[in-house]
Amino acid sequence: MMIKFTVQGRPMGAVRMTQRTKFTDPQAQKYLAYKELVGYKANKCFSEPLQGDVGIKVDYYLFGGRLIDLDNLIKGTCDSLNKIAWVDDKQVVKINGARFTALTKNNEHVEVTVYPVLSGKK
């Protein structure tokens, strides 16, 4: 069972913040709003968090501006999906991510696919 969804708008990578700066730093506020948007979109697709090992495929489409590190983009997406797609992101055992150039600013988005991974454990 693969669960797919798309989040329109410019993808955003994880931002470093402290407990105090998350309320005062504009970049932290923007990141928290983005995480909420990703969570909102995911919530429509998941009736409950997946149990066991999971994999995630994420394709980011960005137009112009400053390029964002792929690992920070993935971190932001995975953090957004905690307690929605999975209980905790330590369940993620497989990641496939790519960053592409969007044709226009209006085409910026992220495509997310989450799926269970069968473990080799017995």
| Neighbour order of strands in the largest sheet | 1-4-2-3
What is the CATH top level name? Alpha Beta
Question: How many angstroms does the end-to-end distance come to?
Answer: 21 Å
CATH architecture descriptor text:
2-Layer Sandwich
What does this protein look like?
This protein is α+β, with helices and mostly antiparallel strands and 122 residues long. It has a single domain (3-116), classed as 60s Ribosomal Protein L30, Chain: A (2-Layer Sandwich), CATH 3.30.1330.70. It has helices spanning 21-24, 26-43, 70-81; strands spanning 3-8, 54-62, 92-101, 109-116. It has a 4-stranded mixed β-sheet, with helices on one face. α3 links the parallel β2 and β3. α2 crosses α3 (70-81).
Summarize the helices and strands and which ones pair or pack.
Elements: E1 3-8, H1 21-24, H2 26-43, E2 54-62, H3 70-81, E3 92-101, E4 109-116
Parallel strand pairs: 2-3
Antiparallel strand pairs: 1-4, 2-4
Which features does this protein show?
alpha+beta; globular; 122 residues; four-stranded mixed β-sheet
Briefly, what is this?
With 122 residues, this protein is α+β, with helices and mostly antiparallel strands. 28% of the residues lie in helices and 27% in strands. The chain has a single domain (3-116), classed as 2-Layer Sandwich (60s Ribosomal Protein L30, Chain: A), CATH 3.30.1330.70.
